[in-house]
Amino acid sequence: MSVWGQVLLALAAATVVTWAALVAVLYVVGRRHDDPVRLRDALRLMPDLVRLLRRLSADGSLPRGVRLRVVLLGLYLAMPIDLVPDVIPVVGYADDVLVVILVLRSVTRRAGPQALDRHWPGSPEGLRALRSLAGLAPDAPP
Q: Which of 53, 111, 123, 131 would suit a FRET pair with 102, their CA atoms being 20 to 30 Å apart?
C-alpha cells in the first residue's frame, strides 16, 4: 500500500474512532436528561456535524473569530499531532471529542444558538443532541 493510501486509511480510522467516542459521550450526557438521545440520532450526528462546521465556516455574517475557530478545529482534527496521541486507546480520541465540544460551546457563546439552529442540516433530534453538547437547553425550540 502506498504512503497516501496508508494516510487515508489512518484518517478514516481516526474519524470512525472519534465518531464512536462522540456517540459514547452523547450516550452518557443523554442519560442525564429525561428524554435521552436515541442511538440512531447519535450515529447521524458526526456527518451532520461536519456539514454544520462547513456551513459555519462559510457564513460571512458570523464574526471572523467564530469562522476562525471552526477552521482551526478542522485543521486540529486533520493533524496527526494531538494533545494526547491517538495511539493511546480511548483517551487518544477523547481529546478530539473534548476539543470539538469546547469549540462548539465557544462558537455558540459568540455567534449565538440561532447560528447553530440556522445552519443545522440534520434532524431535530440531532439538533437537540448538539444543543446538549454545546451546553444549551436541549429542549429549547429551534
A: 123
